[in-house]
From TrEMBL:
InterPro entries on file: FAD/NAD-bd_sf, FAD/NAD-binding_dom, Sulphide_quinone_reductase
GO molecular function: FAD binding; glutathione-dependent sulfide quinone oxidoreductase activity; quinone binding; sulfide:quinone oxidoreductase activity
Protein name: Sulfide:quinone oxidoreductase, mitochondrial
GO CC entries: mitochondrion
Function: Catalyzes the oxidation of hydrogen sulfide with the help of a quinone, such as ubiquinone-10, giving rise to thiosulfate and ultimately to sulfane (molecular sulfur) atoms. Requires an additional electron acceptor; can use sulfite, sulfide or cyanide (in vitro). It is believed the in vivo electron acceptor is glutathione.
Gene for this chain: SQOR
Family of the protein in this entry: Belongs to the SQRD family.
One protein family per Pfam: Pyr_redox_2
Length: 450
């Protein structure tokens, strides 16, 4: 945090530094929970499905409403990851170990941890089934099951990761392979992909491209590298202001972007990747690579897809303003497993948690929810080892920036926020239920104008 404060020079950023200092002092009072998984009871007032960012955050908030003994989290994993850090792990700027903590340490003290997989959702009977067949009933349900990585939908994966030139920043088991492939790169094509599905943190596939290019320049390999971004989308970024800034960087650094190209197969024994042209169905192109970063296809969790809580595409079907289920008033959702029409990021979860907290409070009183989620999300676009464009926007894909300066410019301050401040806020603020995004800070910095 010292390095961040040192670069602060203007009054708005001094306000941010003061805010962070107070947060640090408050966080020092927090005690880590060191509980262990428990035998599930038959009924809980609040049942939270998923121990990721949304599930832990909402459990912390709900605990303060109804008491820890009335809340349970269903989560099978022993480790909890702060996944936004994996962009920097894949580029060698952070260690994988710095992105994880034991799940037991982040579950709110006193909240029951049911270490299991959710096998069935039965909202008509207000219950779920877990992997041992046990039925657990609830009064209120919060679904925070995240998104499913589907590497297997690319022919040749995931077995292709056993070869040395393929990596992916999207899983704990493959992110370090990205860094190894980058270090081993000598010359040829370095290809980065974005699939034809919803993904979490849609900016991440190109962040690693910018960092790889910077690393190659630093190590003298850039002259022999052809850096390619094959994206299934038709634009480099969904918000024009930031897309324009990124296009300038792409041009200045001689990067090659091919739109509407979807990875469908890898041939790791030949170092070949096969792409489908989405504007010409059935047409494919084979490209050789010396390094390949794969962003996998993604989809809703299996237990959600086809269940009563899902929409036609398989995502949890929510009112986009209240985060309450459209059919089941005692069911709520948050994060990547939902059909909220905004980018799936940790920043979005933080903003959603504040709205959902208010929604649940009113529903518990048989009142109509009034707080409205505006679709706020954030994507720190890492463009170098010391620069970030901080993209912030809403449902309308319009910038919704926190700071009173142009965030489409590359800045060191924004990199320090990404690398150091945001992880601190995540572990010590958001997961504890005390950080709901920068809306209040934005109003202060913009003198009350949002």
């Amino acid at each position: 945090m010292t390095s961040l404060v040192m670069v602060v020079s203007c009054p708005p950023t001094r306000l941010l530094a003061s805010f962070l200092q107070r947060g640090s002092q408050q966080a020092s009072k927090f005690q880590l929970h060191t509980g262990t998984p428990s035998a599930a009871k038959d009924y809980y007032e609040f049942l939270v499905l998923g121990g990721g960012s949304g599930g832990i955050t909402m459990s912390s908030r709900i605990k303060r409403k109804v008491g820890a003994e009335n809340v349970a989290i269903v989560e099978p994993s022993e480790k909890h990851f702060y996944q936004p850090l994996w962009t920097l792990v894949g580029a060698g700027a952070k260690k994988l170990s710095s992105s994880s903590r034991p799940t037991a340490s982040v579950i709110p003290s006193g909240v029951e941890w049911i270490k299991s997989v959710v096998r069935e959702l039965d909202p008509d009977d207000n219950c779920i089934r877990i992997d041992n067949g046990k039925k657990i009933a609830y009064k209120y349900l919060i679904i925070a099951l995240g998104i499913k990585l589907e590497f297997e939908k690319v022919k040749g994966l995931p077995e292709g990761f056993s070869y040395p030139k393929i990596g992916s920043n999207y899983s704990a088991g493959t992110v370090e392979k990205t860094w190894k492939a980058l270090q081993d790169f000598k010359e040829g094509n370095a290809i980065f992909t974005l699939p034809n599905t919803p993904v979490k943190c849609a900016g991440a596939p190109q962040k690693i491209m910018y960092l790889s290019e910077a690393y190659m320049r630093k190590t003298g390999k850039r002259a022999n590298a052809n850096i390619i971004f094959n994206t299934a989308l038709g634009v480099v970024f969904g918000v024009k202001k930031y897309a324009d800034a990124l296009e300038e960087i792409i041009k200045a650094r001689d990067l090659h972007v091919n739109f509407r190209q979807n990875l469908i197969e890898v041939r790791p024994e030949k170092n070949e990747a096969v792409f489908e042209d989405l504007d010409s169905p059935g047409s494919t192109k084979v490209m050789s690579y010396e390094m390949l970063h794969v962003t996998p296809p993604m989809g809703p969790p299996d237990v959600v897809r086809g269940s009563p809580v899902a929409d036609v595409a398989g995502w949890v079907d929510l009112d986009k303003e209240t985060l309450q289920h459209k059919k089941y008033p005692n069911v709520f959702g948050i994060g990547d497993c939902t059909n909220l029409p905004t980018s799936k990021t940790a920043a979005a979860v933080a903003a959603q948690s504040g709205v959902l907290d208010h929604t649940i409070s009113l529903v518990m009183k048989n009142q109509k929810p009034v707080n409205k989620y505006n679709g706020y999300t954030s994507c720190p676009l890492v463009t170098n080892y010391n620069k970030v464009i901080l993209a912030e926007f809403d449902y309308s894909a319009q910038p919704l920036e926190t700071f009173p300066f142009d965030q489409s410019k590359e800045r060191l301050l924004m990199y320090l926020m990404k690398a150091d401040m945001m992880p601190f806020l995540y572990w010590n603020g958001m997961l504890k239920g005390y950080w709901r995004g920068p809306a209040f800070l934005r109003k202060c910095l913009h003198l009350g104008r949002d």
